[in-house]
Specification:
With 234 residues, this protein is mostly helical. Helices cover 49% and strands 5% of the residues. The protein has one domain: Methane Monooxygenase Hydroxylase, Chain G, domain 1 (Up-down Bundle), CATH 1.20.58.
Length: 234
């Protein structure tokens, strides 16, 4: 920076953010000034957190951050289990998919459907959960109450790329069942965020300023069970 050019004081930046309205356009403009790509990360992480706080059987949110964490992790939503879990119901796995899709759903809302590549890891994890539900746990009524063995492939082949020993028609049914589970999770996440749009915008503004938020600092991150029940994913 050339000598004599004043730096923007942190206090001034804080006041600028404080004075912003909660409209989607202003939130989007504010975050784009905050840094390249940060607008997407802020919306995505707040989307994950609010969906997690809205569904039963989901580990409570401890904190949300837009501080990079490791290689490729531009932000994170930290959840902490309240008890050891050895078994999970179908509804709980469906809700976990919805939480994973919360970032993409937030992008769809905030950026009018113009989504980015940010959700790649979330999509992979959601697909892995859905694949296991259908092929390992027999949780899809059309595919049936049985498991499908994976054909021998490389050790590191990701779940969504595995080929199963099944007839062509059954393979198609597996693909459709996995797709439907992920679409249902995305739809559930989007419905929650549409209802909680004010929380999404307010949380995004606060996250820009603080970079890390805990449930104690932003009350909407607390589980809604004590405030209002939200139906699990159908």
């Amino acid at each position: 920076m050339p000598p004599g050019r004043p730096r923007r004081p942190g206090a001034v930046f804080f006041l600028i953010i404080q004075e912003m309205a909660t409209s989607a356009f202003q939130v989007r403009s504010a975050v784009s000034d905050f840094g390249s790509g940060k607008s997407v990360i802020v919306a995505s992480e707040m989307g994950h957190a609010l969906v997690a706080a809205s569904l039963p059987g989901v580990d409570p949110v401890q904190k949300v951050s837009i501080i990079p964490r490791g290689v490729g992790a531009l932000g994170f939503t930290m959840q902490r289990p309240t008890e050891d879990r050895f078994l999970l119901a179908t509804s709980e796995l469906r809700n976990r998919i919805a939480v994973l899709m919360g970032g993409r759903a937030a992008e769809q809302l905030v950026f009018d459907g113009d989504v980015s590549t940010e959700a790649a890891d979330d999509l992979q994890k959601a697909t892995e959960v859905a694949v296991e539900m259908v092929t390992k746990y027999g949780m899809d009524p059309k595919v049936g109450q049985r498991t499908y063995a994976v054909r021998p492939q490389t050790f590191l082949t990701p779940a969504q790329d595995r080929v199963f020993s099944a007839a062509e028609v059954t393979g198609r049914e597996i693909d459709l069942a996995v797709r439907d589970l992920i679409e249902a999770g995305n739809e559930c996440a989007r419905e929650i965020l549409e209802r909680r749009r004010a929380d999404l915008d307010a949380g995004a503004e606060l996250l820009i300023v603080k970079e890390t938020l805990t449930a104690e600092e932003f009350e909407p991150l607390r589980p809604v069970a004590t405030r209002k029940a939200v139906d699990p994913v159908a």
